[in-house]
Design brief:
alpha+beta, three-stranded antiparallel sheet, 28% helix, 23% strand, Tnp_DDE_dom, Mobile element protein
């Protein structure tokens, strides 16, 4: 969950339950580990009746700005800038994003 380790996830769930004012038991990290082994995450259906989905795949480059970037651009330094690429696969019919990846500029993701 949120790329947290199981102990941190246990603490997060406990904090959320406490903030909601609920009196519920929080599963132990070892219980979560055992359940995760057999947990099957349902994937969304391909289409209304299982037919193929037409995907639109596109990528765009994003330049990262850090402190002092405005001055560097104003005075024309030749320092290399960091680029990242955002790759998206969207369902052509609904426009819903089906898959995404954020990579360094030179890498090609497997969507």
């Amino acid at each position: 969950m949120f790329r947290l380790a199981l102990r941190q996830t246990e603490g997060l769930i406990g904090s959320v339950i406490a903030l909601l004012g609920l009196d519920l038991p929080v599963p132990d990290h070892s219980t979560s580990s055992r359940r995760a082994e057999t947990l099957e995450v349902p994937r969304p259906a391909s289409g209304p009746s299982g037919e193929p989905v037409h995907l639109l795949v596109d990528s765009t480059g994003l330049r990262l700005h850090g402190p002092g970037e405005w001055l560097a651009e104003k005075h024309g330094t030749t320092r290399r800038r960091s680029w990242r690429k955002l790759h998206l696969a969207t369902d052509a019919d609904t426009g819903r994003i089906v898959a995404s990846a954020f990579t360094r500029g030179a890498l090609r993701p497997y969507l």
